[in-house]
Amino acid sequence: MSVLRSLFTAGVVATGLFCSLPGISAPPADRWEVSPQRSPDAACQDCHKPDAQGMHGKHAAAINPNNQLPVTCTNCHGHPSPRHREGVMDVMRFGDPRFSVEQQNSVCLSCHLPQQLQKAFWPHDVHVTKVTCTGCHALHPQQDAVQTLNDKGRINLCVDCHSDQRNNPAFNPAAVRPLKAHP
């Protein structure tokens, strides 16, 4: 036992001496740069490819304001576990009632600031805690239909959803799907 302790002590001392020598210490942190070896979306797109070009819409060319890199599948949906294909609820599924409104919207609000959304259209302020963002917005279309609506179309959209809420006792705001846009 004392032999092992002596060897361990000698190793610690030698390591300390080696690292304290000038020019032999670890390189400065800013000297090394880690770069991804493959696309963070590669595993997702193996199964969930809308087409050969991948994701559509504004998110396809968006830059994540948190890290200044292109938005990836995992930025919004998270990292799947090995049991993902078995239906384990590990990645964010927007419009899925198993995820609360707060869980779903917290993903959107990690990039989209509430103040900017409220300035863009006042109902954002009222609905951000009550209805999922995907209740009105489609995430991967060529063009989000809600953003093409004129004032009359926006009013019709509101009336349709609020009518459904009044007439449906099982209304679940976490499961609201984007409604068809009215011209």
From TrEMBL:
Residues 1-25 form the signal peptide. GO terms for cellular component: periplasmic space. Residues 73-161 form the Cytochrome c-type protein NrfB-like domain. Transmembrane segments: none annotated. GO terms for biological process: anaerobic respiration. It comes from the Bacteria. GO terms for molecular function: heme binding. Pfam families: Cytochrom_c_NrfB-like (PF22678). Keywords: Signal. NCBIfam families: cyt_nit_nrfB, PRK11659.1. This is Cytochrome C nitrite reductase. It comes from Pluralibacter gergoviae.
